[in-house]
Fold:
Amino acid sequence: MSEFSATLEKVAKALENNSKRFEELDSAAGDGDLGITAGKIAEGIRSGISLSTGDLKADLMMLGREISKSAPSTFGTLFATGFIRASGVVSNEYSPLENVQKGFKAAFEGIAARGKASIGERTLLDALAPALTALNDASDLRSGLSSAAIAARGGAKATAEMMPRHGRAGWIGERAKGLEDAGANVIAVVFEALQ
Amino acid sequence: MQKILNIPKEFVSEMLEGILQAYPTQLKAVDGDNHALARADAPIAGKVGITTGGGSGHLPLFLGYVGKGLLDGVAVGDVFQSPTADQMLAVTKQVNSGAGVLYIYGNYGGDVMNFDLAAELAGAEGIRVETILGADDVASAPKGEESRRRGIAGIFFLYKVAGAAAAAGKSLDEVVAITKRAAAQTRTMGVALSPVTLPTVGHPTFEVKAGEMEIGMGIHGEPGIRKAKLETADQITAELISAIKNDLSLKSGDKVCVLMNSLGATPPEELYIMYRQVKKIFSGDGIDVARVYVGEFATSLEMAGASISVIRVDSELLGYINAPADTPFFTQV
Structure:
């Protein structure tokens, strides 16, 4: 198994290991299916790994396709969109750090556009944005991923004080405050598995 | 739960099997997936492909309008759930003849995300896809915020116009322009008299009390704009038509088509009682009703209630609405 595939397997495992936590957070403010969705995303990642060709661009597209098939919920589709958009910008010409920076930037922009969301609206973007900033400030991949994991976790924690605007949490408004956003937690778990 | 079922979770797959067996000469499954359906003769050479999709539980929406003069393909989700982007992509590839594909579906978050993703993936494979959303439900967002409105029964008029224009050989750009015009002129208002039970849940997931009604309730039980004691047919109809007239700024001399839709349990008798009042109001206002449809067009399982859709037409739009169509659930000669 390539290093890329091994890293993705770690992400899949982390999503499964934390599905109970996602479910709890999502039941409190959302519709409670994010634990199931995280498991389905893990399935999609594994299916993508099994079809890997070793070409980063093709593999990211394949991962996005497989995730969108296995996890067709709103969150799953946004997660898949991240991979598909990253596929569009990575290149063998770039260093691994540059690919990670460009890939996550494209993923962030794609997810924000498809989800019609901005920073500060208590979504997964609030964990992804600080992680992206940390990556952009880094001089090497290892320290970049390490500080991105810390930044993503910090971003997820900060969502507890944000007023929700999207999904079911958007309807219940003030009552969601005090709890961290479930989707932002998924992103924190992903970055912690990547480092 | 008073439903004719085998295994609740097989509700959609068994329904789809039955429909494919009932209409084998009109519909086919794409790549062996019954959730991805196309006209049996798709793709039609040179014709723009018109595609839709959405959750199950709304027959004849969405799959019932796949056929001659209307739609080319449909992706079918579980009850009240979006189909997957992958199913939509499979349908898109099946119905594309090279002339491009137009997606027309209701404005719901899950559907929009999956269909946008499908359009992106189709684009990567060289298929041009355009999208027009059904957003006709006046009750779901105020005037000025039309893009937030949900799509309900009025989408029938968009299908009819787009389908007829595509059948007449119009280009993708032309079909898009005509259908956008139709969308801008279409409004719907509904009233719900009872909740629905999802087969896998077994009990109602929202409430409409006996003897009450909810004006503007969505077809998945989304909150409406007014709950009240059940009123008379004339009172309800006057409220629905008044909201539509104001929103469309209908005036004397306008020509419209009207669609009286049952949400599932309300019988056609009651729809005609309502239409009598629609006709009376429009006649009094000098508004000419050029064509009326009465029946089930967009339901919500066994929900009692009705919706009224109105489209303001010119001679071009009326020509497309009057054009022939032949599908499993809708035929017009």
Summary: Chain B touches chain A through 14 residues (CB under 8 Å). Chain B has two domains: 8-184+323-332, 186-318. Chain B is about 30% helix and 25% strand. The domain at 8-184+323-332 of chain B is CATH 3.40.50.10440 (Rossmann fold).
